[in-house]
Description:
The protein has nine helices and five strands; from the N terminus they run αααααααβαββαββ. 18% of the residues are buried. The model has no long low-confidence stretch (mean pLDDT 76). Among the domains are: 2-156; 275-381, Heat Shock Protein 90 (2-Layer Sandwich). By secondary structure, the protein is mainly alpha-helical. Strands 2-4-5 form a three-stranded mixed β-sheet, with helices on one face. The chain has a two-stranded antiparallel sheet with strand order 1-3.
Amino acid sequence: MYLFSFLAAFIFLRRLRKSLLNPEMYLKWNNILNTGSWVCLGLFFFVGGLFDENFENFIAVLFLAGVLYWIYQEPDFSAQRTLIEAGYPLVVVGLVSGLVEVLMPEFFNTHQNYFHLAVVAAFVWIFSRWANSRKQQEELNVIANRKAELELMVAERTVEITKQKEELQQTVKELQATQAQLIQQEKLASLGELTAGIAHEIQNPLNFVNNFSEVSTELLDELKAGPLQKLPVPEKEYAEEIINDLTQNLHKITHHGKRADSIVKGMLQHSRISTGQKELTDISALSDEYLRLSYHGLRAKDKTFNATIQTNFDPATDKVTIIPQDFGRVLLNLYNNAFYSVAQKKKRLNGTFEPTVQVNTRKLPGKVEICVRDNGSGIPQ
């Protein structure tokens, strides 16, 4: 009994020392439990050499009971209480065995084999509980590792889902942007159809104005060459002055009518949906057509705006194979930028500035150059 009690106390102290996984608990209890283990061994040799067998057994059992009670009271070892309770049968058997041996020695001697068997059984019970505790601890470790793996898988899946969510949000934004572009293109297409309709409506009366101005000019020439010659000289001179004024007015009507006709044709060309087909196109004529369209478009927005337009189109330029509608839009953007720049500078200088936009074309070896120049604010460096 003496050996089993000290051995059980030693096993409990070493087992608790190995269970110190927490760094804080290790610093707090490592030295104490290690010292207790060595005290247990010291008592085993010291008590065994000085006292008789009955007293040795009582000291060993009391030491074991004290160790178990001390450990059981500590909150830090609450997780080990199941293992500590496994030592209680050994303490009870030791106390009962010792008391029977002192009080009833004859009965103890007759049945001491049963008492020794009870001590061995209590000790085996401690080892079985210890083995079961180790098995449970291993299972808990496996569960903890599996939990960590599952948490890692959940974290990875969460990152993947978050990434997919961000990709979906980006896709939604792109779809919304595409939808907005489609709506804008639909509006532009509707505007183009409206512009084409208006241009067609303007074209008809404009053709009448141009045709009748030319016819009226021809009639005035016939009048001047025929009936006018029969008038007296004073009346003839006066009539010739009136006819000359009318002829000049008709020439101006014809000139501006043709300009308006060019603008209307530009509107029709601009509003027409691009076929994507390349055509032989006169670059100089196309440049002039969209220049007038841009200028009058800006004038329609701001009646106070005026600008000097200077053109120098090289007559030697050949026709170039391009998509007229698409290329015209490029020119229109350039012209709009130029007119916007000079208009802003004129506003900033309070009208003391003369806006000028110049467009030149010239033929170069293997290509045609278009130069758009303005005296506006320019592009920041």
